[in-house]
């Protein structure tokens, strides 16, 4: 290779070390090294560096740090960054440790007094690209976006997504070469850059787009139309010029190390292992496969030394260990040895056996753990035994938990679960509330394979390990012969429970790897994993319901159903059971002779809701009345009656269970009670919501994303008129009606707006002309003309739909704007009806899934901000695009503002996210 080719092949990766330090410090919970030194930022930095070296290797690499707070910018503007508070006390000792981490990995760490890290990054990027190479900057700092170009891109270290020109335009409204002008106008309160008062990001972008660079804007300012903005531009022109000097990165400072000296090389394994062990980062050692030092960390409580867990794992893999035999731990000495092995390994799998599927009321029967493949044990705690199968010796629950607790809360030991939320709730009920850090194999699978298959342990084991685990039914029996797990003989329980932990650990080793391969790390790490504890806390808190109101509601529903039954009987001419599909089918198709009837495999007429809806749309009255009766019956049984039985007798609260790995799109679902299906716009739905109330002295606060899926459609399909409408805060349905039907916005006919609204929301779900005609009550031909006119006005939406269908057919999945894979079974079906359904799913999944991703991001943000806010507030429910909180009445408005801010800032897309809030004594008032 000649010298020119070598230069062109150079790929310099620059890590914004200073930027990542603060991000990691605030993102991770407090952690300490074995010596007691705070290390949460160090741990986050180490994990980031490990992942980068594995997934994003360039030819050259360096970490860039700030050398100090005083730089040339302070000479230009003494107030620059002057108002920034000192670094948090726990962060100060971590600065040096992070530099040690860089050295341990064999990566150059570079800093230069008098200059900021951003200036060094800019100068290195300029140098490598000037010689024909390219540069990746590991940072999402907006100040570095001015450097983006054909050979320079940023990489968000959290989302693991590149930031190129399109992302910069979405952020600033201008291309990278105009970012400096926008920043000079808008200023930056964080860094104390003055800018021009009253000019924000949108105003600055508009000025730059209209006039050009800053000099052109300031030159034109005196002649602009008189306004506050014009006056500010004239009076603060010098502030803008100073701001431009402050935000412009220096690209020509002397390089402390030549680029050739930054060539990538493998770290010195022994030195790296020693440093990681000194920090207590055993999970990193395990992930990197570099083994532990010969002497593991001293086990607690004087336990006997154990063999190295990494060696156990390596030996096990070499021998392809089978599943079992497993050990029943019945002495404290053996328990201590297992605990010590888990400490030494830096990670282990854990599973709980209980006497109930309701985690909030379940008691521990036993605990299993696995420290290496094939190496697992079960600790029986509350087995009852029998004359035929005596339990033998068991350990006291309190003593076992007392010994396990230091391991479970150790921030340097990773705890691996399958369906972690359940086990965390069980452990919390048993007295161990802060288990951290955790991984969840169910969610590791779900984050990368939603819709592709189920995510239960047995199914994952067969799929990934080729092993069919012992089934619960084979251990406890089925039907009337089923026995409680506490009555399962300990020997049999050990085989079953320890195998669960063993399988979970093996699944983790597989799924952690495929998570990277499928580029799903950000979805798991930023959304699914942190949400586990958020949802667990929500389930524990529950929400209060008004028992007397529910009884009144149930009685009223029963009375109305009885009246409906009388009306239906009169309509038919005789009595029959409205709840009997067989009797209803005979009346509709045998006696009344209505068309369209189809018999089921059992020979009875089909009378599901789709059949009845078709008949109702055709103008038949009886199916209409039956559908109304069924809706009321469902609301009575599912909510009015069921909620009474689900109330906690002591608190009057109900505790729904959030299902995290059910839907294809990432949406949460809930059961017992299912709060996702309460009708939104009906009187009955409103009455049910009125039964959800706040405690005395509190109120409920609802925060709901407005038209979020339409906003995502405008963003991902890049529809300029829709984007503009959202930017201007216009009525999107009226704007659509105006655009499609050529009708002025002023005095818009409500019927025309309604039709545009039906198309807007229908398009998201791939609505057909037939579906739209049924929804609006118009001929199919007219509905088809509406849809054709819609696509003619917004061809980008048709392009998006075609592109998404093609993506689904090619890959078997589509992705949300935030990287979540949503698999689409049936997309390659030969059957046209099934394939059409799959195509509609594919079109909707990025939008519904994107909305799910955004509200999950918001929930994670709020879970961190609420404790810092000082507000006595609880996040209680998440229902689709809505969050529901309970708060002390005096704090309600402050909480509403906090929720709105955090939810609207949860993601950045090309249109504003808007959140509507409400406050009330019950959910209906707040909603």
Automatic annotation (TrEMBL):
Its EC number is 2.7.7.7. Residues 10-265 form the 5'-3' exonuclease domain. GO terms for molecular function: 3'-5' exonuclease activity; 5'-3' exonuclease activity; DNA binding; DNA-directed DNA polymerase activity. SMART domains: 35EXOc (SM00474), 53EXOc (SM00475), HhH2 (SM00279), POLAc (SM00482). Residues 307-320 have a biased composition (Low complexity). Residues 685-891 form the DNA-directed DNA polymerase family A palm domain. InterPro entries: 3'-5'_exonuclease_dom, 5-3_exonucl_a-hlix_arch_N, 5-3_exonuclease, 5-3_exonuclease_C_sf, DNA-dir_DNA_pol_A_CS, DNA-dir_DNA_pol_A_palm_dom, DNA/RNA_pol_sf, DNA_polI_H3TH. It comes from the Bacteria. Residues 296-320 are annotated as: Disordered. Residues 326-516 form the 3'-5' exonuclease domain. One of its GO terms (biological process) is DNA-templated DNA replication. It catalyses: DNA(n) + a 2'-deoxyribonucleoside 5'-triphosphate = DNA(n+1) + diphosphate. The keyword Hydrolase applies. SUPFAM superfamilies: 5' to 3' exonuclease, C-terminal subdomain (SSF47807), DNA/RNA polymerases (SSF56672), PIN domain-like (SSF88723), Ribonuclease H-like (SSF53098). Transmembrane segments: none annotated. NCBIfam families: pola, PRK05755.1. Belongs to the DNA polymerase type-A family. In addition to polymerase activity, this DNA polymerase exhibits 3'-5' and 5'-3' exonuclease activity. PANTHER family: DNA POLYMERASE I, DNA POLYMERASE NU. This is DNA polymerase I.
